Amino acid sequence: MISLINLAVLFTAKVADNALSTTKTILVQRSRWILAGIAVIISDFIYFWITKRVVSANNEIAMLVVAVAGGVGCSLACFINEKMSKDIIGHFEGKRAGIRIVDAKEVVMFAKDFEAFRDLRNMPMIAIEDMGREPIEVLDYGNVLNPVVDMLEYRYNLQLFTFITTNLTKSQIREKYGNRIADRFNEMLEVIIFKNETYRDK
């Protein structure tokens, strides 16, 4: 006969197992690959530990407790995720919403004003127009700055929404900005090619 303490341990372990499993799915959707991998490792360990205990117990009550705990764990993870999402939305309430549109040359000008550049790169969504027309490097009191590259690297690391328009081809982007940025683009951007005829010559 399985004891109440063992049932409580099984219940807690299964709640943790399903909570971690659901959290893994949420982390994958948010591109948090390392954390998702850690969640899978811990979840699998708990799962096999529970399976061993339930099989050895051969007890229907233990199986029922584990089944109920699975639902509780899943619901708990979903509740926490929803709460976190509401907190993020609430953080922006009362503030300006929308997309900040800047020309790539403007990004270069912002780079000489640290606070303005910091505010720009931290915006939830920005659109950089005509990327490729700006100089790659600029001098600021003897310091060499790479404004557009720094902006893109920073926003990539924080997974912030970034829209870009450019007339450069993939090979031209790689040549101008280097392999690192080109690889980032391949990973983070959904490319939309406009094949309409140009009106510039009309």
Report on this structure.
The protein is mainly α. It has 2 domains: 4-90; 100-188, P-loop containing nucleotide triphosphate hydrolases (Rossmann fold). The protein is built from 8 helices and 5 strands, in the order αααβααβββαβαα. The strands form 2 sheets. It has a 3-stranded parallel beta sheet with strand order 1-2-5. α1 runs antiparallel to α2 and α1 runs parallel beside α3 (60-91). Mean pLDDT is 76; it is low at 86-94. It comes from human gut metagenome. The chain crosses the membrane at residues 33-50, 62-80.
Structural class: mainly alpha
Q: Helix coverage percent of residues?
A: 55-70%
Write the CATH homologous superfamily of the largest domain.
P-loop containing nucleotide triphosphate hydrolases
Number of domains: 2
Return the CATH class of the largest domain: Alpha Beta
The largest pleated sheet is described as: 3 strands, parallel
Instruction: Give me the count of strands.
Output: 5
Rg for CA atoms: 25 Å
* Share in β-strands: 5-15%
Distance between the termini: 87 Å
On the 0 to 100 scale, the average pLDDT is 76
- Oligomeric status: single chain
Main sheet: strand order: 1-2-5
CATH architecture of the largest domain: 3-Layer(aba) Sandwich
Per the CATH scheme, the topology name of the largest domain is: Rossmann fold
Element pattern in H and E: HHHEHHEEEHEHH
Keywords: Membrane, Transmembrane, Transmembrane helix
InterPro entries: P-loop_NTPase
Protein name: DNA replication protein
Organism: human gut metagenome
